[in-house]
Specification:
Length: about 260
């Protein structure tokens, strides 16, 4: 008697492979989120050894996509903002940080977007816009680097227009943020338990892109609005927390020289 056999479609193996690849791809965002929580949570615990953090939310951040734009006063700013901001932040960072194999892998797992600061990086722009379209938060330092004194946006210095460009093209708001005091951690004495530095973070009112203007006019309007919002937010934070000139941004060298 001839046994009954069922012919297996020749492309069944390819279909199974595609389904597995699709399944594995779907796990990547989950893994990245868990890795982000692990790293940010660990850094938050370390920073609490040397700092007391106060967050003042003058306005609640929106639920959807937006660009978070902050002044930049120290290398500690990204972990401080990531650890105390209520949303996961996909940072835009200079491509030099992705040089070594371990750092390149780590930053990619943290969903950091590398950008070439020396030229027109369209790939970084497209990736940031794609993530904004998915409802995520993009973190940008408009100053383009660490700034203190008159060079800082909190003192009225101009910033670069990367954050504004993203917001206008994506049609999403910019949330201004001001951080003060993080550069105090350059001074090793402030890591002593009885000398923990005070760090202040202020979250401001979202800036919406104007709908009745061309893209160039909208960028100009938002650039001016963001510059004014950062200064105003710094002034509000100073009044709210009773701060003084010594709490405003100083250079790492000045902080390290403090007794």
């Amino acid at each position: 008697m001839k046994a009954d056999t069922q012919e297996i479609p020749r492309d069944s193996g390819w279909r199974a492979g595609r389904e597995f690849a699709r399944f594995a791809t779907g796990l990547i965002p989950i893994f990245h989120f868990l890795f982000y929580c692990l790293v940010v949570g660990s850094l938050r615990a370390i920073l609490l050894l040397g700092a007391k953090v106060r967050v003042v939310s003058f306005h609640k951040p929106p639920a959807g996509a937006f660009v978070m734009a902050s002044n930049h006063i120290s290398h500690f700013d990204p972990p401080f903002l990531s650890g105390w901001f209520p949303r996961k932040i996909d940072w835009i960072a200079m491509s030099e940080l992705f040089g070594a194999g371990w750092s390149r892998t780590g930053f990619r797992w943290l969903d950091v977007i590398p950008v070439d600061r020396g030229g027109d990086d369209r790939q970084a722009l497209r990736e940031a816009l794609r993530r904004l379209a998915a409802g995520r938060v993009i973190g940008v330092f408009p100053e383009g680097g660490i700034r203190d004194g008159e060079r800082s946006m909190v003192a009225g210095a101009p910033g670069r227009e990367g954050a504004v460009l993203l917001a206008v093209w994506a049609g999403c708001p910019i949330v201004p943020v001001v951080i003060l005091g993080s550069e105090r951690l350059y001074n090793a004495k402030n890591w002593l338990p009885w000398r923990r530095a005070r760090v202040y973070i202020a979250v401001g009112k979202p800036i919406l892109p104007p709908e009745d203007k061309s893209r160039s006019a909208a960028r100009e309007r938002m650039r001016n609005d963001l510059a004014a919002a950062i200064v105003r937010l710094k002034d509000d934070l100073v009044r709210e927390c009773g701060l003084s000139e010594k709490d405003l941004p100083h250079s790492p060298q000045e902080r390290m020289a403090e007794p």
